[in-house]
Amino acid sequence: MFSNKQKRIKNHPVLQEEESVFVKFTFDDKELFGKKGEMISSALIANGIQIFGKHPEDKAPLGIFCANGQCAQCTVLVDGIALKSCMTPLKESQKIESVEDYPPLPEDDEEVEFKPIPTIDTDVLIIGAGPAGLQAALTLAKLGAKIILIDDKDRLGGKLLLQTHKFFGSVKDSFAGTRGIDIAKILEEQIKEFENIDVWLDSPCIAVFSDKLVGVLKGDKYVHINPKKLLVATGAREKMLAFPGNTLPGVYGAGAFQTLVNRDLVKSSEKIFIIGGGNVGIIAGYHAIQAGIEVVGLVEALPKCGGYKVHEDKLRRLDVPIYTQHTVTATHGKNHVEAVTISQIDERFQPIKGTERTFEVDTILIAIGLDPVNEFYMKAKEFGMDVWAAGDALEIAEASSAMFSGKIAGMKIGQSLSLTKKDVPIEWEDKAEILKSHPGPVVKIEKPIREEGIYPVFHCNQEIPCNPCTSVCPKELIIIPEGGILGLPEFKKEQDVECIGCAQCVAVCPGLAVTLLDYRDDSNFPKVTIPTEIFVEKVEEGDKLMVVNEDGEELGIHEVDMVRILKKYSKTQLITVKLPKEVALEAVSFKIPKAYELKEIELYQDIIPDEAIICRCERITAGEIRALIRMGITDANELKAKSKVGMGACGAKTCSKLIEKLFREEGISYDEITPFVQRPLFIEVPLKYFTGSQEED
Known about the structure:
FAD/NAD(P)-binding domain, 7-stranded mixed sheet
């Protein structure tokens, strides 16, 4: 009953809200309600609270940024203890307070009794239970290895849990045509079948030590793991971008937005603007529309978006403006994002004066790329451990490629443990390479001109690794001429075999880029079956919808003739409309009415890059760091000593790459820079656990 008053997503075309128990808690002495077990950050945002505290240095407002435990922007006091709200589950009667100063240290007036830290031996420790870690665990389990699989979240799946769209790749090997959230469930069920996989959830890895032990906080107990082999499959963290206003509450990483919207069904925003035209940004925009959130626009610095064109097309058809060769120059607002200014950039990626445009928004999504979370891997290598990396911790790629990366790492570790003499199958290596390949050039595809029978029409015109349409056709009438999963699909008409109109190819397509034409009843007004995943309610026969072509151009309002939902693809509506034959081949999607009118506002400021915050934890600006670099400092550790940059709670995870960029802008190459020395502890943890104490102590 409490959720009706909160910012929660009640109706979604793909997701369903689960039954939850609501508990009472307080935030700054105000009584609130949230779902038991959800992260505190999600409970606060569901209650309309975006500001979690103020920075003690300059009282700047703080909210979430990564929602993944990588930064410390969302820290709150929970029953007097400073904790990351995005990693702390909500419990009954918690007293939560905003942080506006450094939390007081406890009195040092008692002796501490140190107890022995338990050490657990295992064949393989896998850090990270995302697509790579899960597949590695399954591969090793089949070989008979004893495995401990740890993750700092409360469930298996990693970023799969945020992906409501259907995956590309191969049906046989990487679940193409299946949604990421469903792949996570499939892999979880497979993991449960093996007794030699010991799964530890809510168990962050704290550090890798020089004696080759790995520190893990298992619940409220700190333990050492002594693995024969270590696999790091910790995924990636989002890159940050420096611009004025970049730390305002409402500036999120795209993954944080997907965590709130797709995992927790919290409606965090009303109007968003996206920075970055790769797959992450484009898909996040589509997820926003599915959640009933307006996408005001997207900027991409390059001349064209780097993501798959079929994803980009879905946004364009829904009237989302995409500004290529543009960037964000400032975010505006006192305590929260209220507007964003973008501008066109020149060939040197510098903003062009006079091209500024400002829009009212409440959320900015940063989606400019990912960095590997590889500090455990690098430290383990430094200490001479038998260590491997897989997935994004090894190389940034799509989740389908990460799964193969995990399988390959698992097989290699199995070889090193003498559990198998088999080599890694060549096809695994080949498919891993194919699945991480960049999209090919956009080509013009000639549509078939055949005004008879029934057959599929393909609206994908860019080579990407994808073959589900060829796999599901019961008559094997869809082929990729070059073979494999790269290439564009074609319908081959056989003399004695005809399309039966099952529409499986339409329903399975991850890019919603297949339609079905049926001329059998009326060659002048054929029936066209179009897939959609944007309507919350089921479309009914007789409804009238605006049909659009590949470029989003309107083909008129037409009446729905039939609606199908195939059991295997239950969240994809197949809507059939009768269209004049002149436009039937062009029809590919529908348009939904805009809930708002796009308006620019007269507000922008000159670009002041020196004011942009580089170190979010210590509030160090680009100008402060640049001044030190110009004094001749090329050692990041000296920068730290003179300015405190990199000394914050995140351990330089969010600022180190930005500092490298500042060095480059000042004409100093990477080879001339002395990078930060990475300290053993990578995760904040109360000191009491290192004494062997538990919560009840």
